[in-house]
Design goal:
This protein is an alpha/beta fold. The chain has a single domain, classed as Roll (2,3-Dihydroxybiphenyl 1,2-Dioxygenase, domain 1). The protein has three helices and eight strands. It has a four-stranded mixed sheet, covered by helices on one side. A four-stranded mixed sheet has the order 5-8-7-6, covered by helices on one side. Strand 3 and strand 4 form a beta hairpin. Helix 1 packs antiparallel against helix 3. The chain is globular and about 45 Å long. The two termini are about 25 Å apart. The mean pLDDT is about 90.
């Protein structure tokens, strides 16, 4: 089965593991600790993602080092309001509160309404937390 899973570059791998566990209930799947260089696999309700300490020599910098991010991570959950609050309590920055949005989409499965808000984690990654309503 084909999968796509993000590998997030972070400034502090061990701190990132703790944050994602506290903010999103992430489960640690595996953890390679090579001193300052950390690589780990995590999952949120079975959705896998990975993180690694930034490695500028290999072309990866964390958003906090680069000064911006080019990726928005979509996290779909049953209760986006409580997950948004939990992320803020764990140290995320509020980008947008969770509100209802109406969409006009084209395709076989158009999204008409959804709840969605956004937080920026302490490492500079933007997480859109939402739920499709119809």
């Amino acid at each position: 089965m084909t999968q796509i899973s993000p590998m997030l570059a972070v400034s502090d791998g061990n701190a990132a593991i703790k944050f994602y566990q506290a903010a999103f209930g992430a489960k640690l799947l595996w953890h390679l600790n090579g001193g300052e260089h950390v690589v780990a696999g995590l999952s949120i309700d079975g959705a896998k993602f990975f993180l690694a300490s930034e490695a500028p020599d290999y072309g990866t910098r964390s958003p906090s080092s680069a000064g911006f991010t080019t990726v928005r991570i979509e996290l779909f959950v049953d209760d986006p309001v409580s997950v948004h609050r939990q992320a803020l309590a764990a140290g995320a920055i509020d980008q947008d509160p969770v509100v209802e949005h109406e969409h006009q989409t084209i395709g076989p499965n158009p999204i008409k309404r959804m709840l969605q808000g956004a937080v920026v984690d302490p490492f500079g990654h933007m997480w859109l937390v939402g739920k499709i309503l119809e």
